[in-house]
Amino acid sequence: MFAGFGGFFSIYSYLNYDMGDAMHLGPGFFPFVLGVILGVIGAIIVLKSLCRSPSSETSLGPFDWDILILIIGSVLFFAFALEALGLILTIACICIMSSLASHDFQFKSAIGVAVFMAIFAWLVFVEGLGMTLPLQPSSPSEWSWVTCLFISVSMLICFALVVRRVRCDKP
C-alpha cells in the first residue's frame, strides 16, 4: 500500500506540477520526494515480507466483523443523528458504540468516556471554535424518515451485537 500510494503521488506531482531546478525548487518537488520516500519504504516492507517464511506468531485469526460494523456504524450514526439527537447525546452514543468494539468492554468505563467526550466536544467545538451545532435533541416530528430508520437500525444492531457477545462469552 505504501509503494502504491508513493508511486501514485510521485507520478501525479511529476506530471501536474512544476519541479523547478536545483536553485529554485518548484511546488511539485516536495510531493515528488515524499512519494519516492513512501514508495521506497513500501518496497522495503514488501521485500522483507517476501524473504520471511510465515510463522504461527504472525498468522491471523478469523476476521471479527462485529468490530468493523460497530466502528463504521458509529461514524455513520454520527453523520445521520447529529441534527436529530444533538451534539451531546450523539457523541455519548458513538462513544458507547465504539466501546462495544473492544473485547474488554466495561459499561462503567464506556459511560465515563462518553460523558467526558461529550463535555470535551462541547467545550472545543461550541465554546472554543464557536461552531453552531445543535446541543439538544430536536423534536422527533422534525426528524426525516431516513434519520428515524437509521437511528432505529443502529440501536438494534448494537443491541444484537451486545447480546451475541454476552452469549459467546459465557462459559
Automatic annotation (TrEMBL):
The chain crosses the membrane at residues 29-47, 67-97, 109-131, 143-163. The keyword RNA-binding does not apply. InterPro entries: DUF1468 (IPR009936). Pfam families: TctB. Coiled coil: none annotated. Keywords: Membrane, Transmembrane, Transmembrane helix. Residues 2-134 form the DUF1468 domain. This is Tricarboxylate transport protein TctB. It comes from Taylorella equigenitalis (strain MCE9).
